Amino acid sequence: MKKIIAAIDGLKYSDSTVNYAVYLARQTNAHLVGIFLDDFTYHSYKIMDLVGDEGLIEKKHSVLEEKDERARKQAVQNFEEACQEAGLNFTIHHDKNIAIQELLHESIYADLLIIDRKETLTHYEEKVPTRFMRDLLSEVQCPVLVVPAEYEPVDKIVLLYNGEPTSVHAIKMYSYLFPEWQSLDTQVISVKDVKQALHVPDNHLMKEFMKRHFPKAVYTVLKGDPETEIIQNLKEQEENVFIVLGAYSRGMVSRWFRSSMADVLMAALNVPLFIAHNK
Fold first, then answer.
1. How far is CA 76 from CA 10, 12, 110, 112, 194, in A?
2. Which residues are CB-neighbours of 124 under 8 A, at least 6 positions away?
3. The domain containing residue 249 runs over which residues?
4. Exposed, middle or buried by CB within 10 Å (0-12, 13-18, 19+), for 127?
5. Residues 20 and 137 in one domain
6. Hey, which of 32, 151, 199, 211 has its CA 20 to 30 A from 93?
7. Model pTM score
8. In the chain, what's the furthest Cα-to-Cα distance?
9. Residue that is last in its domain, among 147, 164, 184
10. Which pairing describes strands 241-246 and 156-160: parallel, antiparallel, or unpaired?
């Protein structure tokens, strides 16, 4: 039995995260763990909300703290009810220390982490990808499924492959975690320079491998800039796609100068992204 963990912000409950987690746990007969990131430094209110004419107002602080506590309890109840209705084997963890550290530690002992692409674990919103997501994806110890705001059942799998070991590693991790999905329509997308031949990188070896895992996969080789061509192709897809890619394998300094493909896709598309990297 696999172990799937879902990162949940009790103050900004993501129905989509829970819906995807429940759906995938049922599909794979997995044990689902709800990781409630109750970071002691994180509140729904701002410091300015506590300030009155005479400075900090203790009574107002207590009221706002009680409101947060009720929201967190309601989030746990919502998660429990979703799991019980689906008949899942599930557990709840309350992580009260620094959220990013707790979640990275939990990822060591998980097969898959599911999280909302807009997650910040702060009371304000940020542009996608958020700082929290960048930090998480660069150091996480298991594959991550980054989900959009709205849940949609998966119709088709798109495997992004560029000939690099990290893209093959991501495909392997996906195949090991979701053998039940071999029957779904599967497309392999590669992008090559306009002057290169229209052959899949490492054509013989790749297709020999794929035949054992995804015998019905179809191959698409595009030409041009990878970010432009892949986004355009994916936007034209009519099915509800689930994208598999390797990402965040480059060093931190390298990422300062060039975004990961995962960053680009998170910002441009509202689809689930299965991201895995090998360091």
1. 7, 12, 20, 20, 52
2. none
3. 156-276
4. exposed
5. yes
6. 151
7. 0.91
8. 74
9. 147
10. parallel
Whether residues 231 and 213 fall in one domain: yes
Q: Alpha-carbon distance 30 to 32, whole Å?
A: 6
Contact assessment for residue 273 and residue 243, using Cβ atoms and an 8 Å cutoff: yes
Residues 10 and 143 in one domain: yes
- What are the φ and ψ backbone dihedral angles of 124, each rounded to 5 degrees? -120, 165
Chain CA centroid to CA 212, Å: 26
Q: Are residues 7 and 49 in the same domain?
A: yes
Residues 64 and 93 in one domain: yes
The total of structural domains in the chain comes to 2
Residue numbers in the chain where pLDDT is lower than 70: 46-61, 248-259, 279
pLDDT tens, residue by residue, 163-172 = 999 999 999 9
Write down the pLDDT at residue 123: 77
CATH code assigned at 140: 3.40.50.620
Angle at 24 between CA 23 and CA 28, to 5 degrees: 125
Specify whether 165 is located in the same domain as 81.
no
Residue 37, CA distances (Å) to 2, 58, 82, 112, 264 in order: 22, 25, 18, 17, 26
Structure tokens, 278: 């090998």
Q: 49 Cβ partners below 8 Å, 6+ apart?
A: 60, 64
How many alpha carbons lie under 13 Å from residue 194 in its C-beta half-sphere?
3
3-state secondary structure of 96: coil
Reduced 3-state DSSP string for 154-205:
CCEEEEECCCCHHHHHHHHHHHHHCHHHCCCEEEEEEEECCCCCCCCCCHHH
For the stretch 205-264, pLDDT in tens is 999 999 999 999 999 999 999 999 999 999 999 899 999 999 865 444 333 334 588 999
Pair of tokens at residue 10: 């009790």
